[in-house]
Design a protein that fits this description.
Blueprint lengths: L3 H19 L1 E3 H8 L3 H13 L3 E4 L2 E4 L9 H4 L4 H12 L7 E4 L18 E5 L2 H7 L5 E5 L3 E3 L4 E3 L1 H8 L3 E7 L2 E3 L2 E4 L2 H12 L1 E8 L10 E5 L5 E5 L4 H9 L4 E4 L12
Parallel strand pairs: 4-5, 4-9, 5-6, 9-12, 12-14, 14-15
Antiparallel strand pairs: 1-3, 2-3, 7-8, 10-11, 11-13
Length: 269
């Protein structure tokens, strides 16, 4: 039986899904829907608001994410898990022992965390606090944490200090994801995100982009780079064929990976 903390986390994720799907939901309606007291509903929503998942006011919970505002890192980490694992396994094929790899502040690339020791020794450079916490102390992993201003919704460090640190580094590979793909170009919701990812691209010899199928149905404000700027673009098998063909017609180097959770032989070293 799941612990109380696990049950609470699962309930809060379900509440977040409901609010994001409907835009705004009355708190008493959420209490009734999830079979909890009004007091418990308020307590859940207070915790979720503190983590940047939603806004609570006037008896209702309202979604914060829109086409222009990034959803919370905590929420995003629980989405599209099968796709993220498949993309992460594929990305690992491009890493070799002894390399320095930049990994961005995305929940997609975070799926690489438990696999990185398979390519040790590696130097992992990241601005993403959850990834730092995951790999610190792993045998054979040298961690370089990028400093800067911490943004809670991103779970990472962005801005001038982070970008200055990247300007003094030269890595073998950078692995990143994106919020949206529109007309063959990566887009993100904030200028800070774009500036730091651009600095990452400039600091690495080889560029990998991991994109799950949901990114082709989204929109965002700030353009980062055309997908042709990447050496390898890896998409999951749920990506509609017309999107894959569009990328190929633009000259994008696309690899499609299945969503099979079985270990990949290439991961065994």
């Amino acid at each position: 039986m799941a612990s109380r903390s696990t049950q609470r986390a699962q309930r809060q994720r379900a509440i977040a899904d409901a609010v994001l799907a409907e835009g705004s939901v009355r708190i008493d309606a959420l209490a009734e829907r999830f079979g909890i007291s009004l007091m418990t509903a308020h307590r859940d929503l207070d915790e979720m608001e503190a983590r940047g998942l939603l806004h609570k006011s006037r008896g209702a919970a309202t979604a914060l994410p829109s086409s222009l505002v990034e959803s919370s890192d905590v929420y995003r980490r629980g989405q599209q898990l099968a796709s993220k694992r498949a993309l992460a396994r594929a990305a690992m094929r491009y890493l070799e022992p002894g390399q320095a790899v930049i990994i961005d502040d995305s929940t997609t690339t975070f799926a690489m965390a438990p696999m990185l020791a398979q390519r040790a020794p590696l130097t992992v450079i990241t601005n993403y606090l959850p990834l730092m916490n995951e790999v610190v102390g792993q045998k054979g992993i040298e961690l370089v944490g990028l400093c800067g201003q911490y943004y809670g919704w991103a779970g990472g460090f962005l801005g001038g200090l982070t970008n200055d640190a990247l300007a003094r580094l030269r890595a073998d590979v950078v692995v990143m994801s994106t919020s949206a793909v529109v007309d063959g170009t990566c887009y993100h919701q904030t200028r800070e995100t774009v500036d730091t990812k651009r600095a990452m691209l400039g600091a690495a010899a080889t560029r990998l982009l991991l994109v799950d199928h949901t990114k082709f149905e989204r929109r965002a404000l700030h353009a980062l780079a055309p997908l042709t700027d990447f050496d390898h673009v890896i998409v999951d098998a749920l990506t509609p064929e017309h999107h894959r063909e569009d990328l190929r017609s633009r000259g994008v180097p696309v690899t499609v990976v299945p969503l099979d959770d079985a270990p990949d032989p290439a991961d065994e070293m």
